Amino acid sequence: MSVSEREVSNRKVLEREVSGLEVLEREMSEREVSKGEFSGREKAETEGKEIFSCEEAKKAAEKAMALLLFKDRTRHELVTRLYRAGFSETASSEAMEYVERFGYINDRRYVENYVMFQKGKKSRREMVYQLTERGIGGELISEVLEECEYDGEQEAIRMLLKKKLKGRLLCETTYEERQKMMAYLGRKGYEFHTIKKVFSQLDNEDKKV
Q1: CB of 180 within 8 A of CB of 148?
Q2: CA–CA separation, 50 and 145 (whole Å)
Q3: Which residues pair with 119 in a beta bridge?
Q4: What is the number of alpha carbons within 13 Å of residue 38 lying toward its C-beta?
Q5: pLDDT (tens digit per residue) in 92-144
Q6: Is the separation of the CB atoms in 74 and 107 below 8 Å?
């Protein structure tokens, strides 16, 4: 399954779960109810009470899932949003335990998806910085980048230059323009030797046009 297909699948699951944690009610109501037992709804409510120690914790879980339905988030981001929403540490902790237990949040998966979508667009340094800002540990980031064999910096530089050139060839730019573009790429986190290599490649390609 591709990254985009997996995200669509995750979104569909969240849409089914987000309203009142319907998974509890659905799973219980699907079971055959024998005489003298609770109804499906009553069973769902009972099981819900077993999962959460209080109503606040259940509400925190609903809030967490609603936030995840809007977009994927890191554990740090979700905890922060729950605290900002006014939930207690206990309620937030139970909510996080719930979404992690059922796989609604996973920092490794988040980093893998991020790298998959951003490689070829961002430098390695820029990705590390942005993931760190979202509360991801450096060790996990390094592991995923190594596993993904990230080597898309040259292609990313080409894409950025294409936008800057707006249809022109690199050989048609002035010395000042080239320096500005190199400085821009440096600020984006690309190594100078990689930038120079791509410039040289493009110059050679332009000569063949």
Answers
A1: no
A2: 40
A3: 122
A4: 12
A5: 999 999 988 888 889 999 998 898 888 777 788 888 999 999 999 989 998 88
A6: yes
